[in-house]
Amino acid sequence: MKNRTLLLSDSFKNLSQKKLFGAWIFYHAAILIFFLVSLIIFRGRIGVDSDLFNLVPKSISMASVKKADDKMMSVTSQNVFVLVANEDFAEAKRVAEEVYAGLKDSKNFESVSLYNDVSAMGEITDFLYQYRSYLIDEKTADAILASDEGAQDFALEALSKAYGGFTMLPLDNIDSDPFLLTEYHLQNYLAAVQNAGTAMSVKDGVLASSFEGKWYVMIRGVLSRSGAKLASKNNAITEIYRVCDAAVAGAPDSGTTFVYSGTPFHSHESSTSASREISVIATVSMLAVIILLIFIFRSVRPLVFSVGSILISLGIAVVATLAAFHKMHVITLVFGTSLIGSCIDYSLHFFTHWAANKELKSSIEIRNHIFSGLLMAIISTGICFAILLFAPFTILKQMSFFCLTGLISSFLTTIAVYPYIKLPANRGNVRFTKGFSKVIVKMEQKWVGRTVIIFLFAFSIISIAVFHKNVKVKNNLLTLYDMKGRLLQDEITASQVIQYTPGGWYIVSGDTEDEALANEEKLRRQFEAATEGKIGYVSTSSFVPSKEVQKKSREAYKKLMQSVTEQLEALGFDDVENFDAVMSLMNDYEVKKNQYVSFENGNVPQFIESAISSAWLGKVDGKYFTVLLPTQVTDYALYRALADADENVYFISKSQDISVDLDNLTKMILKFFIVAYILMFIMLRFFYSWKQALKIISVPLLIILVVVAVFALANINMEFFSVTGLILVFGLGLDYIIYMMENEKKVSENSVLEPFATMVSFVTTIISFGALALSSFKPVHLIGLSIFIGLATAYVSSFFYGRHAQNDK
User: Fold this and answer.
1) Distance between CA 206 and CA 546 in Å, rounded?
2) For residue 63, is it within any domain?
3) Is residue 47 pLDDT above 60, yes or no?
4) I want to staple 761 with a disulfide (CB 3.0 to 4.6 A). Which of 240, 245, 345, 541 is the partner?
5) 464 and 521: one domain?
6) Can you tell me where the transmembrane regions are (predicted)?
7) Residue 119: pLDDT above 50?
């Protein structure tokens, strides 16, 4: 019976050349039309993403909480801080003012702030005075309501402040505010701000701090949507660098330096670095391929068509990915450069026979000769990439979709376009084929192949057994991006100067605004008790209490009012019994009944909204959310335990949560590998004998063993990206043994050409993936390294496994 691969191949080969070329045109035109439609529908939202946070999976499963966390991150992740440093405060302030003037009107920023506006003090005190009966904190209100002594103590404290002269506010309203509640609330608000944890304080109208003999003046900016497009040339970060450089250009010896802090600076650095790597990897890989093709084929035509196929494949992969995902991460683009090696495989198989196989009299015959191998290769690779499309991780989906669309394009180009290429006049002029045939003859002996395969298995198993403690499926988000150089030093300095290093936060939910605030107040009490009040935090309810606390405040205020006559007399007012202020206070209390301070009532002033902009998230997906942000995380287990005890509280620690999610995702990818393994074996058994199928399917097992062994020897964890590389190797590595198996069915004097083409395609693929392994960016490095090791193993094992396949039928 005729081999099933040949039957399938014949069914495709019977298609007319015009139909195949029509399929090539339809495929590429459909993707281009899809891209144009997406460009119109999602105008302004299609582009390259360089945000580091989007490189890793989201750590929250509940949709509403995830949206709330995304909303917070959209604000906080766009914050940038520039510290202007000089030994002379006046000079530091002057330069800061010049930088501020250069940035404040830029479209790249939502806002830029330098000055601590003291003119807002009047607005603050007016608000605190107007709502003084609603803003007594819960502890003080409880003390006042607990006993008459509590109320008396509060009244005496107010008297001591009034007579002692240690008040922050003038006593102009003492007749209507005899308990100095406005003063008390102002101190509480300032304490809440101080409790937020930074070491910056107001000096001469700006936020500044002295550290190790230098003054640091802070400029804070929030990036706009256009400014946050860090892959563009004119973005907020490049503008900051330009304005800061210009500010000190006139006085280079002034001693003024800048400290840059914030996620956008690192995203910009990684984006710039990735762009440089794209250029280097693409250029080096392309040059290596060009030199190799010219040297081997001694003709320009294979070079022109191969490079053209690569460019078409890369172009169609880019537009397809942008059309499908709208945002393509720059790392997907970096990884996509590996197609330079992969996409050329099909071209190399064609042009090897085109240049050297005199038995084949036309380009169509060449296509028919190699068709079964190419078809099986694209099917096996396609299965692996297609399975990754189901991974719950956008970047992984993008990578697999990018490679899949590019490889299909290259495959169609080979079978639909190349048959139109005329054969050269002089054939058989290909370098290295004679020397390669001699090598093959020496390797024909079975003991050579068996020795190599046994050695690879033994080396892997022994290495894993000896270094089994180094075999770990473990991810650490903090190692994916290595801060270095100027930015590393800047972050260290900024942390020491600002003294604010949050490592996690609580997201608190409620069905209503008031319920969310009440839930946060409950968490605050538990948090303060658990940390013994030693850890500061930012919270919404510190500034806008829940209605329950405000009601308690009103009750405490009412109790204080029972002794208002005595308080006014103690303050020196005469004829208090007939004093209008007493009646006014009583009336004011009744008039303001139910005038709670809340966002829904619209009476929360702008200065408070600004102070808690990163804490109050408001209504998201039908629920209300607020954030309690500790200034530091000292005990992750303790902090998480507080959240686990309340269904309305969620503790988010990006580095830990995402690392755990990456661990889970890594295990899921391994399950995908098993699924792909089973599907691939079923497919192989359909086309090949049991012995052939088992030979082919054993290659991925050997790949895994060798990669794990090498990683164990180098003490490198099996992280998400290296495991992802393994499943990609599964698809690419099987191509080699499939080519070998298919070639062994076609015994002739030219049978050496197919192994030779396989060897050349392996070299070109290793060049591109080897370049990825040299990347300084950890995810790209890990993918490249695992694929490099895996492909080398796949080629070596397939070279020997494929021998004498004709006897295995």
Assistant:
1) 32
2) no
3) yes
4) 345
5) no
6) 21-42, 278-297, 304-325, 331-351, 371-393, 399-421, 447-467, 668-687, 694-714, 720-740, 752-774, 780-801
7) no
**DSSP three-state, residue 135:** coil
| Whether residue 626 has pLDDT greater than 50 | yes
In a domain, 177, yes or no: no
Sign of CA dihedral 198, 203, 204, 208: negative
Query: pLDDT: is 689 or 26 the higher one?
Result: 26
Beta-strand ranges (E) seen in 51-133 are: 79-86, 109-113
Tabulate helix, strand, coil % of the chain (nearest 5).
65, 10, 25
What digits encode the pLDDT tens for the residues 441-492? 555 556 666 777 888 889 999 999 998 888 877 766 556 556 666 777 887 7
Residues 627, 618: Cα–Cα separation, whole Å: 10
Residues 6+ apart with CB under 8 A from 775: 277, 281, 334, 781, 784
Which domain range does residue 109 map to? Answer: 74-116+205-261
- Checking if the pLDDT of 651 tops 80, the result is yes
Domain annotation covers residue 366 = yes
Place of tokens 């999602």: 42
Is 60 exceeded by the pLDDT of residue 354? yes
Paired tokens of 149: 């002594």
Structural domains in the chain (count): 3
| Pair of tokens at residue 381 | 């690779």
| 702-706, Cβ contacts within 8 angstroms, sequence gap of 24 or more | 702/453, 702/456, 702/457, 702/460, 702/793, 702/797, 703/729, 703/730, 703/733, 703/790, 703/793, 703/794, 703/797, 705/456, 705/457, 705/460, 705/461, 705/464, 706/456, 706/459, 706/460, 706/789, 706/790, 706/793
Q: Give Cα 594 to chain centroid, integer Å.
A: 46
Q: Cα–Cα distance between 210 and 93 in angstroms, integer?
A: 13
Q: For residue 536, which of 191, 204, 233 has the smallest C-alpha distance?
A: 191
Residue 21 tokens read as 């070329």
Q: How far is CA 124 from the centre of its chain?
A: 39
Write the CB contacts of 604 (distance below 8 Å, at least 6 apart in sequence): 544, 597, 598
Same domain membership, residue 641 and residue 712: no
